[in-house]
Structures are given as structure tokens and as C-alpha cells.
Design a protein that fits this description.
The structure is a homotrimer. In chain A, the strands form two sheets. A five-stranded antiparallel sheet of chain A has the order 1-8-3-5-6, covered by helices on one side. In chain A, strands 2-7-4 form a three-stranded antiparallel sheet, with helices on both faces. The first copy, chain A, contains four helices and eight strands; from the N terminus they run E-E-H-E-E-H-H-H-E-E-E-E. Chain A has a single domain, classed as YjbQ-like (Jelly Rolls), CATH 2.60.120. By secondary structure, chain A is α+β, with helices and mostly antiparallel strands. Chains in contact: A-B, A-C, B-C. At the A-B interface, strand 3, strand 4, helix 2, strand 5 and strand 8 of A face strand 1, strand 3, helix 3, helix 4 and strand 5 of B.
């Protein structure tokens, strides 16, 4: 059993920017030579989240519009009244989506659907530099 | 420390079908003989999700109605306009609920509340055959 | 590679009480001496959830108001009609937020943003005693 650590660094545009992390996660998994294992993606910060979607422009736009309905930008938030950040909606969206995503590796491959991508959603109200930390625990490939 | 891999295969009815996975997960955990460990359930695909609920008909129906309010079937989605799938709402619901669920095993037992079940929600607009992949890492039972 | 088990016990006020678990999780991680590892927080029960937020009164109040909009207390729920519990809304909120939270430890420290706290949300309609189970798998610190 081994442990592997990596990170993905991204420049986002904020404002519910949705970025596809799949290729980077698969590159890490392949480079580490995991046979079978489980891992966690975690994004530090309270205005971003991680989930999976079919990463095509229609779904991405639908997701942005859903979150705009659930927690509209420009509504009255206690956070903004107290701190003047103007990103109260971003905090709510991030809490709903969650900062972590668990993943599995089986037979040397990241488990996912063909049209299922791992994405970072940056809900903040400005461009951000983000780090997504990636860790996996498992056995090497080929398995003993 | 060991690693165990399993899978649960299900036929769903789609349309926000909610299926109880608890007995299958507990059967896997018991069969593997885990003493203490942590695991991940992951459903490949972008129109299904995993969470926990009290699996009784009232909560299940309430959950289906909540998701119908948040992302109504039959509303106008960019995904449907582009691809004609008619399941744009399913993609949104799945992204909210998330494709993964972490679990713990302590003293040889799956950690959960008495009235807390592990469920798969299939939001797609047709019956589907689904695989839920299950992996755990931990120590054998009884612990050394 | 090692495995560590802990628990956090809390008295909540229910009614969407939001409690900061960060100091307790960091105390556990430091006490275990983890160098690099991943863990899971899991709350047994179907009316509570775990996520991260900036734990300041404004965000906490905004989150409570968001969940009141999404699944209002006092609305008509099938669960309440069948069981008379009056906490149908709590079940829905818990299913949305989810009962588990994955975390990472790197270089002996819990990975999180400066203003990002790990929180338990208790949505039940009465004060509750809650247990949050914490488990981590990883290597000791300093790493070999």
C-alpha cells in the first residue's frame, strides 16, 4: 500500500467558472502507477466546489443558471452586509456543492463514466488562482 | 492494511428512482472482514448520484419532489437544446447530489444511523443499468 | 501506513444549528501525528450533514436562510404526514448536504483555506446529541 500526493493549479475567471480537471487527474493517476486505490480531491477556500458533470457547454450553462436561481448574485446576504465582499452567493453555492470529491482507481484507471468529468466550480466574484490537492492511497500497477 | 474492491449492479426505473444500497454495502463489508477502514462508493455516469436518507416512502417522495422543484423535468435546458436528450434536469440533480459517498467501518460494522440508508438516485429519463463501485482500505477483523 | 480512529461529540440546538468542528479535527490530526493522509468525517443520522463554510455569523445565517428556502420548515411533507415527526424538511436538507466529508492531511497539517471551516449542520427540529466519526489513513510525521 502506498500514498501519493499531487496538486493541480488553475487560473479561473470566477463568476461560476467551471473547469474540467479530468485530464490532470488522469495524468496524475497514470504517472503514479496506481493499480487499485482511492483518492480525494480537495479545494482549499470557501467559495469553490468540486463535483462531476458531463462537461459540455449546455450542461455547464444549465448548472450556472441553476446556482444563480438557488443563490442569486446580487441578492441581500448577511455576509455581504457585514464584510462588503459581495460574494455571499459564492459561499452558499460552495457549501452546497462541497469542497471535496472522492474518486476510485481500478485496474489502473480512474473510475468515471465516458461523459462524466471532474470539475472545479469557482463561484467567487473575481478571477482566482486555485489549488486543488489530490491524494490517493492504494497499490501499484500491475498489482502484486 | 488491505484494499478491497467490489461492485453493486442495479436495474433502475430512472425518473428519480431511489434505490437502497445498504444491505449490499453491509454484505460486502462483512464478507471482506474489515475491522476498521474507510471506503468510497462511486457511480459512473453524469445523471445519477449517491447520498443517505431514511429510506421510507415519505422521505423518498419528498426528495423526488424537492429535486423536481430545484431542477424541473420539462423546463428549457441548454443541454436538451443542443443534444435533444431531454435529460438536462437529470444532469443538474446529479451534480448537486454528487457521484460519490464516503463511508467508515468501525469494529467490523458500517457506520450509519439506525434509520440512515445509503441510496442511489437515478435521475435519468429512462430505465438504466447502473454499476456502483465500492472500495475500502483498512485492517482486517479482529484487528491485530 | 496506519489507520487512526476518533470521534467528536456535540450537543446541538437543532433547527439548522451550524457547529464548527475544525479545532477538534485539527486536534485529532495533530495528536495522531499524521504526516500525509486522507480521512473521512461521517455523521450517523439522516437529519444532519457535513460541509465547509467560512464560519462567521453572516455566512451561517445566509446558509440557514438558503436551506429554509429550498426545504421550508412547516411545509407539507409526506414524511410528516406518515410519521408525525415534523422534521421532513430536515431529512431533505441533510440529503442535499450529505453525511460525509473527505479531508486531506499534507506535511502534518489539515488541508483547508484560512477562512474555511469544517461544520456540522443539525437540521432536526429539536436539540440532539451528535457523534461525528473521524478516521484517517496515512503515514506518520515526519514521513520516513
Amino acid at each position: 500500500m502506498r500514498i501519493w500526493n499531487g496538486r493541480i493549479e488553475l487560473e479561473t475567471r470566477g463568476h461560476a467558472d467551471v473547469l474540467d480537471l479530468t485530464a490532470e487527474v488522469e495524468r496524475l493517476v497514470a504517472g503514479w502507477g496506481i493499480g487499485s486505490g482511492q483518492g480525494t480531491l480537495f479545494v482549499p477556500g470557501s467559495t469553490a466546489g468540486l463535483t462531476t458533470v458531463e462537461f459540455e457547454p449546455g450542461v455547464v450553462q444549465d448548472l450556472r443558471e441553476l446556482l444563480e436561481r438557488l443563490a442569486p448574485g446580487g441578492a441581500a446576504y448577511h455576509h455581504d452586509a457585514a464584510w462588503g465582499d459581495g460574494n455571499g452567493h459564492a459561499h452558499l453555492r460552495a457549501a452546497l456543492i462541497g469542497p471535496n470529491l472522492g474518486f476510485l482507481v481500478r485496474d489502473g484507471r480512474l473510475v468515471r463514466g465516458t461523459w462524466q468529468q471532474f470539475v472545479l466550480c469557482d463561484f467567487d466574484n473575481r478571477p482566482r488562482r486555485r489549488r486543488v490537492l489530490v491524494q490517493a492511497i492504494g497499490t501499484g500497477h500491475p498489482e502484486p
